[in-house]
Amino acid sequence: MKRETIKGIEERIEQLRGDIPYLEKAVKKRDPKGIERSSHFLIYLLHKIAKNAVQMGTGDAISVMNDFIYKQKLRKMQEERKYVNVKKQYSIWSKGYDATNNVAIYLEEKHSGKFIGGVKGKRVLDFGCGTGRYSVPLAKKGAGVTAIDFTQGMLNEAKKKAKKEKVEIDFSLQDITKYESLQTFDLIISMLVLDHIKSLRKIVRVMKKASHVGTEVVISNIHPSWILKNFSKSGKEQGYLVEGYVTDQFYHPLEEYVSLFGGAGFILSDVKEVIYENQYQNFKRFEGSRIFKDRPVLLMMKFRRVE
To answer: Is the pTM here over 0.90, yes or no?
Structure first.
């Protein structure tokens, strides 16, 4: 019953959005009959929405309406967004990245500690370090950190953080798919990065060269189901990260990771679908995050090299 009521509210909001232009047109033409017809129909729709609201409870109905309106707004924004490549996207984002209320980052940081574990005295490679979200805290905990990224703006922000926290980090500006390490690492992390890489095979090859037996690799990505959903709608593998822009985001299911890392001598030692559960839900802080409610937002994995 509730699902049918929600569907009824959504359909009538869609009708409202479609019919308001007719009223605007009638007003512009100073057409009294047109204004009357449109007004009566809009009042009828509002009455139906109010009736559904009573059935559901006003609070629930308002939440449904707000969520539906946000979805429509998001759909329109996505249609109007300009395509830029990943490097340009993150250059644009670099200044405001850390101030962004991003539900994926929020959820990831709630769970990443368990995956990463203790790092004191370890050699750590931050593969696509961005603004140093992990590089700087790990260096503060006593790790020797090498951090690479191909976006100068992101690296500049990371360096500012490192200077402020008085930690030494070996920063390097380069493409992670072409990275050639002169040493091996005890831990390699790549957080919210690899779904922007078309060829995982290249990444696994690079990580193998930068690892030794016992090295652990921790990866987080937007859950593949969301990337597949975007693909099914647009026919392109695209991610919507920064308002006004769209960039490349590629579908890599868990099976692909397990197959490629397995072929390189790694085993999967931990995995988690991070769900936007009730204990984490904050719809006011993360606008539009209701669409993720009780659904997996991230896929987190840990591999260990065994041969």
So the answer is: no
